[in-house]
Write a structure and sequence with these properties.
Chain lengths: 282, 280
């Protein structure tokens, strides 16, 4: 499923002293199979943009096409839209509510019209995908779990409704480095399941560089770049003009280059960087 | 949750915004007394003039003022109709069983509704023009005399300001949780009363969990900074009763006199005026 965004603009509290332009004429396309990163400083409109993708925010002006569903029409089929586009919010563990993990994970599928058996099957599969076992912790209260487990259960709760597109808002916020890596590996692994397209909102450039094949940059509501991480971080000065930072690998590559040690890889991951250095040393 | 107008600060710069919160509190109390003093329609008109001029001085747009009424619209309709139907008036226009509509009843219910509208408008002006922090500071200062009978005024003020401070945070939290559950296919506006009430659980439980978590964290933060409500704390913003407040007080006093005078037909001053009119 392809997502087409055309001339999208959004203003919070128009015509009041609180008025704030969040999105200003944003257009881009997300292709099926993409892992798209949306980056930008705080308040650049990333979250507003992402909430448009499953109609949590009504479109003020512009157009969004989700496959063949037009979100700008008067009454889009919200259930259909939200089933197709799963959304994981920041700190998703804070939205757990049910008395058992099983009920919480089955909440989504049941809302989207699956019957008991289907919901149970789908929930069990979702738990397996996030690396947890329904048989083991299904009857526990979600509030008894550890922080990392809670986040996994929350992710399972989102993917249990089998979305085609998964939108993640700062999925690694508040996790330790190992936890961050685990979650991102998990997201990458999900792409071999029913989830075809992933949109990651982040301001951690290391993650974007390593996991995304495409990246769009927002600055004060405007789309200032729609490119690949390799081009964004290596062959452009877009990052210099925003409050964003370069990935650590790129920083090391540049420091080396400044001392005459030029390597010829995009250096988007630690492995790539190390390989580049090794090649140069040979 | 977007419509929480009652008690929301409206940020602009105006005469009223710059007034001493204590003065504003006292003036609001005076205003409430004034509303209850008003009897005749003419005196109600004076109160309306008072509210409108206060709103103009505070530079609060009319739409905002009307929005504060929206919150109590059901109450208004209810009181209006009840008074209309059950007022024990003399000039009965229509009656059935224990219900009777009288001229006095109509007048009384109009006055009743008008009184509520004016009360809400006047008092929301206070919260529109005063930040919660200065409001609690003002209250604390006004309640200082109670310290002598061992009432923990400062602690009460702190509790109040924390509670007020948390209203926007929690309402934002509700928005977030609602969005997250909507994204999981929950809907909050379909089905009967029972299913709607049940649909609130996925919001309420995470909300309470997070409220307790925040309270815990706040308590730790207060502790970590050795908070213990020492008696002689100084303030960042010192409140000062100024010329502005005096002007406000004089204005309010003038309106109260006007209202009382209108209630009593100027104590027969009309006749006096008429009898001396030929002099001019």
């Amino acid at each position: 499923m392809q997502i087409v965004i055309q001339n999208l603009s959004y203003v919070y509290s128009p015509k009041t002293p609180f008025e704030k332009v969040a999105l200003d004429n944003v257009s881009f396309t997300v292709n099926e199979g993409d892992t798209l990163g949306i980056v930008g400083a705080t308040g650049s409109g990333k979250s507003t943009l992402s909430r448009h993708l499953n109609a949590l925010i009504r479109i003020q002006s512009g157009k969004i096409l989700l496959g063949d569903i037009d979100l700008s029409q008067k009454k889009p089929d919200l259930k259909e839209v939200r089933k197709k586009v799963g959304m994981l919010f920041q700190f998703p563990e804070y939205q757990l509510f049910a008395d058992t993990v099983r009920k919480d994970v089955e909440f989504g599928p049941k809302n989207f019209g699956m019957n008991e058996a289907e919901a149970a099957k789908s929930a069990a599969e979702a738990m397996r995908l996030v690396g947890l076992d329904m048989g083991e912790i299904g009857e526990k209260s979600p509030f008894e779990l550890s922080g990392g487990q809670m986040r996994r259960v929350a992710i399972a709760g989102v993917i249990a409704s089998r979305p085609e597109v998964l939108v993640l808002d700062e999925p690694t916020a508040g996790l330790d480095p190992a936890g961050k890596r685990e979650i991102l590996e998990l997201v990458t692994a999900l792409k071999s399941s029913f989830v075809k397209t992933v949109v990651i909102i982040s301001h951690n450039m290391d993650e974007i560089a390593e996991y995304c094949n495409r990246v769009v940059v927002l600055d004060e509501g405007k789309l200032i770049a729609d490119t690949t991480p390799a081009i964004l971080f290596n062959d452009s000065d877009i990052i210099d003009n925003t409050e964003l930072d370069y990935p650590h690998t790129i920083k090391i590559k540049r420091m080396l280059a400044a001392r005459g040690f030029v390597i010829d890889t995009p250096a988007l991951t630690v492995k790539e960087l190390a390989a580049g250095v090794a090649r140069r040393l040979k | 949750m977007k419509d929480m107008t009652l008690g929301q600060y409206y940020p602009t710069d105006s005469f009223t915004h710059r007034m001493d919160p204590r003065a504003k509190l006292v003036l609001v109390i005076a205003f409430i007394v004034m509303v209850f003093l008003a009897e005749s329609f003419l005196s109600y008109f004076a109160v309306i003039v008072c509210v409108v001029s206060a709103a103009l001085v505070s530079r609060i747009p009319l739409s905002k003022m009307l929005k504060s009424i929206k919150a109590i619209i059901m109450l208004l309709i209810f009181t209006g109709i009840l008074n209309l139907l059950f007022y024990n008036g003399e000039t009965v226009l229509w009656s059935w069983w224990r219900i009777k509509i009288s001229v006095e009843g109509i007048i009384f219910s109009i006055k009743m509704v008008l009184r509520l509208v004016l009360l809400v408008m006047g008092t929301t002006l206070l919260t529109y023009t005063t930040t919660p922090t200065s409001l609690t500071d003002g209250m604390e200062s006004l309640l200082t005399p109670l310290k002598y009978i061992k009432v923990p005024v400062h602690d009460i003020a702190v509790i109040m300001s924390i509670a007020l401070r948390f209203i926007p945070i929690l309402s934002e939290e509700v928005d977030k949780i609602m969005m997250a559950q909507k994204a999981r296919g929950a809907s909050f506006d379909t089905g009967g009363l029972l299913s709607r009430a049940k649909a609130l659980l996925p919001i309420l439980i995470p909300l309470f969990v997070s409220a307790f978590r925040r309270a815990d964290e706040l308590a730790l933060a207060l502790d970590a900074r050795c908070y213990n409500a020492t008696p002689n704390r100084t303030r960042y913003k010192v409140m000062k009763f100024g010329l502005r407040d005096l002007a406000g007080a004089i204005g309010m006093a003038a309106f109260i006199v006007l209202v009382v005078a209108l209630n009593n037909n100027f104590w027969g001053a009309y006749e006096t005026v008429q009898s001396v009119w030929w002099l001019f």
